Amino acid sequence: MKHFISIADLSRAEAESVLATSEQMAATQSRSIRKLPTLVGTTVVNLFMEDSTRTRISFEAAAKRLSADVINFSAKGSSLSKGESLKDTALTLQAMGADAVVVRSSSSGAAHLLAHSGWIDQPIVNAGDGTHEHPTQAMLDAFTLRRHLGGRTGTAGLDGLHVVIVGDILHSRVARSNVLLLSLLGARVTLVAPPALLPVASGDWPCEVSYDLDAALAQGPDAVMMLRVQRERMIGGGFFPTEGEYARRYGLSEDRAARLPDHALVLHPGPMNRGFEIAGSVADGPRSVIVEQVANGVSVRMAVLYHLLASNAREDAS
């Protein structure tokens, strides 16, 4: 595995290997000393051209807990804000000796371009590119589900589980990556959204599509993943009548959560719009694993960096 750009690039064996390594990384985080010497002497650059809190901090924590040096590079206040091209930024990072670059961009395909342009030879990790993909978020979501529900159906991993993903599918890179990964791992996925918030391409994704949240929840899913309504991407409006109408039809209220099976989990990639897409009491309730998702993100991103940069991991993969 040279880069970590898209879930579509992974085989099931590769995805399960990253999840297994994530479990090992998670075990180290309960120790009094959580640092591992694995990546001593390497430099990881976080190239964030789009605002982020959870993902950037998570990648920084992951690299530092593997003993790598970390350089945080933000578009704001850098030469990128002065008009420097992505190519010139990549060449600069190459010249400075970066061993891996974690890139987040509002432009779909930016990570793929960096990985395959020839401008930089080091591994590239996609930390979210436009509305395309967010593969490490999908990995941490699958890791969280596997820790709670793995083997529940009597088969390995997530085989046979039913996951409902609700909300702004159109603008969600998280939704696309989760559909690809969860289906790869054997789960059944149902997307639920207003018609205007479902991409045309979703009809070709390995999932089911519904416009009726109550009907989808009546099937007794094992997990419900709520997505943030991304108002900043909704240029021109008209995606749903009103916020109240959206919350009534597609929000995860206390009443809807109470109808879920006892074992069912509630997830959200954050940040949340409480009282809009999800009730605050549900987000903080006993079936919510939202805070756990954040914690698991560090372990999963440690695993991804390990697979890309640790020499013994690369030898095992070859």
Give the CA-based shape. globular
Domain unit count: 2
Number of strands: 9
Work out the radius of gyration: 19 Å
Order of helices and strands: HEHEHEHEHEHEEHEHHEHHH
Average pLDDT for all residues: 90
Question: Could you name the CATH homologous superfamily of the largest domain?
Answer: Aspartate/ornithine carbamoyltransferase
Total of DSSP H or I helical runs spanning 4+ residues? 12
The secondary-structure class comes to alpha/beta
End-to-end CA span:
9 Å
Q: Looking across the biggest beta sheet, what order are the strands in?
A: 7-6-5-8-9
CATH topology of the largest domain: Rossmann fold
Q: What is the class of the largest domain in the CATH system? A: Alpha Beta
Per DSSP, what share of the residues sits in E-state strands of 2 or more residues? Answer: 5-15%
Largest sheet: 5 strands, parallel
- Could you name the ranges where pLDDT drops below 50 across 5 or more consecutive residues? none
Q: Percentage of helical residues?
A: 25-40%
Annotated CATH architecture of the largest domain: 3-Layer(aba) Sandwich
Structure commentary:
It is a single chain. This protein has helices at residues 12-28, 54-65, 86-95, 110-116, 135-149, 173-184, 213-217, 243-250, 254-258, 280-283, 290-309, 311-317, and strands spanning 43-48, 69-74, 100-105, 124-129, 162-166, 188-192, 208-210, 223-226, 265-267. With 318 residues, the chain is of the alpha/beta class. The protein folds into 2 domains: 7-133 and 294-310, Aspartate/ornithine carbamoyltransferase (Rossmann fold, 3-Layer(aba) Sandwich); 135-293, Aspartate/ornithine carbamoyltransferase (Rossmann fold, 3-Layer(aba) Sandwich). Strands 7-6-5-8-9 form a 5-stranded parallel β-sheet. A 4-stranded parallel β-sheet has the order 2-1-3-4, sandwiched between helices. β3 (100-105), α4 and β4 form a beta-alpha-beta unit. The model has no long low-confidence stretch (mean pLDDT 90). Its EC number is 2.1.3.2. L-aspartate binds at residues 82, 173, 228. InterPro entries: Asp/Orn_carbamoyltranf_P-bd, Asp/Orn_carbamoylTrfase, Asp/Orn_carbamoylTrfase_sf, Asp_carbamoyltransf, Asp_carbamoyltransf_Asp/Orn-bd. Carbamoyl phosphate binds at residues 54-55, 104, 134, 137, 270-271.
